[in-house]
Specification:
232 residues, single chain, 7-stranded mixed beta sheet, mainly beta, 14 strands, 46% strand, 5 helices, 5-stranded antiparallel beta sheet
């Protein structure tokens, strides 16, 4: 049972720390799985089978070459548990998992594979200046709705207690089977899906070491509001 490794926190990201403090040039594990964002939140990152895919509005989906990143949450994922689900959606996936184990206070890595009836994802605009706020990024993002799209949701379940470290509840990114479409998942529905999951007992967090991070003001109440507006 492997751990979740996280670089920075959702609280720091929501507070405007977008600099690429972490270098992951040597991350080549074939089972590496997870999500994150590129510098300036110019792209949503989806990590599948050790490959880093960047989804940016107005650009074709591409693999990320420069892995100097502000936020990343990854694990080595080999499904320990699997079940088939019918009539599944973002509003009931937690209930389906809760029927199998108590999820309230644990971390999970979750992979949902399906031909989704409907999928709503978002992609940010690229920001070369890296000076905009999270709110400005969110207001300018591109939201797309896809019908009958085959692919997988890649992400994590985080207990509410840890909601300023990682996104509380489910945090999913999508990767299509043809590797042409990806992004942060806002909602989904599927008549049939395969849900794989792995319990993670340990989360290891590396904080940035820069002076900019050390002097960053993190308003916990504002962070909670922004997570609700930007990530959900």
């Amino acid at each position: 049972m492997s751990k979740i490794t996280q670089y920075s926190t959702i609280g720091a990201l929501m507070s405007g720390h977008f600099a690429g403090d972490f270098s992951l040039q040597n991350s080549h594990s074939p089972t590496l799985f997870g999500l994150g964002c590129s510098c300036g939140i110019s792209g949503e990152l989806t990590i599948c089978n050790g490959e880093f895919w960047e989804a940016t509005a107005g650009e074709s989906l591409h693999q990320l070459a420069d892995r100097h990143l502000p936020f990343l949450q990854v694990t080595d994922f080999v499904a320990e548990n699997s079940f088939e689900a019918t009539n599944i959606q973002d509003k009931n996936l937690d209930q389906r998992l809760a029927e199998r184990l108590a999820i309230k206070n644990i971390f999970l890595a979750v992979n949902v594979k399906s031909r989704f009836d409907e999928l709503v994802i978002r992609r940010p605009q690229r920001d070369e200046s890296q000076t905009r706020t999270v709110k400005e990024m969110s207001d300018a993002q591109q939201v797309d709705t896809h019908k009958e799209i085959a692919g997988q949701l890649i992400g994590f379940w985080t207990p509410e207690l840890f909601g300023r470290i990682s996104v509380p509840g489910f945090h999913f990114h999508f990767l299509s089977d043809d590797h042409k479409i990806s992004g942060h998942v806002l909602s989904f529905t599927a008549a049939n899906a395969v849900v794989d999951y792995q319990v993670k007992q340990t989360i290891e967090i590396s904080n940035p070491t820069s002076e900019a991070y050390s002097s960053l003001t993190i308003d916990a109440t504002k962070v909670d509001e922004l997570i609700g507006q930007v990530e959900k």
